TrEMBL record:
It comes from the Bacteria. Residues 1-57 are annotated as: Disordered. It comes from Rufibacter quisquiliarum. The keyword Chaperone applies. GO terms for biological process: protein folding. Participates actively in the response to hyperosmotic and heat shock by preventing the aggregation of stress-denatured proteins, in association with DnaK and GrpE. It is the nucleotide exchange factor for DnaK and may function as a thermosensor. Unfolded proteins bind initially to DnaJ; upon interaction with the DnaJ-bound protein, DnaK hydrolyzes its bound ATP, resulting in the formation of a stable complex. GrpE releases ADP from DnaK; ATP binding to DnaK triggers the release of the substrate protein, thus completing the reaction cycle. It is found in: Cytoplasm. PROSITE patterns: GRPE. Keywords: Chaperone, Cytoplasm, Stress response. The lineage of its organism: Bacteria, Pseudomonadati, Bacteroidota, Cytophagia, Cytophagales. Homodimer. This is Protein GrpE. Belongs to the GrpE family. Residues 1-20, 28-38 have a biased composition (Low complexity). One of its GO terms (cellular component) is cytoplasm.
Length: 196
């Protein structure tokens, strides 16, 4: 049975290719027609999508331009504020120093006619103490260097001399110029002499 089904007569063989071709043509025409219908729908959908996309793109572009302009204005404003801050940064300190300057001018005028040296000395010491307390109030603090171990982070070594005792080796023996902290930051290194 299987041999008869597998064997085709010449007429059947001639018919089969035609049927196959017709079937293939019909199958290929149907998707093409379906595609054409789908393309019409897609084109309509694509038009709506492209209109929505272009409107969304315009909106995003507008937002971007506004944000860019806002940032440029912010940058200009902050740079202007920084310049003004630099110009007036020391204003508070200068205003606080004016009374000390007034005291020094009065002391200078008093020294011209003064006969009593002790009175002048006391006046200058008062002005000095007032000035020192003002600077401390603003955050300036003097370093204590003599007798401390040498520290390159806060001390500047001028020279080395023989240490007067063994325990003073590597320590600060003398201070040539005071060092200062401003709010715990070194603003001037102490110039010191170290024991060797």
């Amino acid at each position: 049975m299987s041999t008869t089904a597998e064997q085709n007569t010449p007429e059947q063989e001639n018919l089969q290719p035609e049927n196959q071709e017709a079937t293939e043509q019909t199958a290929s025409e149907q998707p093409a027609a379906g595609q054409a219908e789908g393309q019409g729908e897609e084109t309509e959908g694509e038009t709506k999508t492209s209109e929505n996309g272009s409107a969304e793109l315009d909106e995003l572009r507008d937002k971007y331009l506004r944000l860019q302009a806002e940032f440029d204005n912010f940058r200009r404003r902050t740079s202007k504020e920084r310049l003004e801050l630099f110009k007036t940064a020391n204003q508070e300190l200068m205003v606080a120093l004016i009374p000390v300057l007034d005291d020094l001018e009065r002391a200078q005028a008093a020294m011209k006619d003064a006969q009593d040296v002790n009175a002048v000395r006391e006046g200058v010491e008062l002005i000095f103490n007032k000035f020192q307390s003002l600077l401390q109030h603003k955050g300036l603090k003097a370093m204590e260097a003599v007798g401390q171990p040498f520290d390159a982070d806060v001390h500047e070594a001028i020279t080395q001399i023989p240490a007067p005792s063994e325990d003073m080796k590597g320590k600060v023996i003398d201070q040539v110029e005071k060092g200062y902290y401003l709010n715990d930051k070194v603003v001037r290194f102490a110039k010191v002499v170290i024991g060797a």
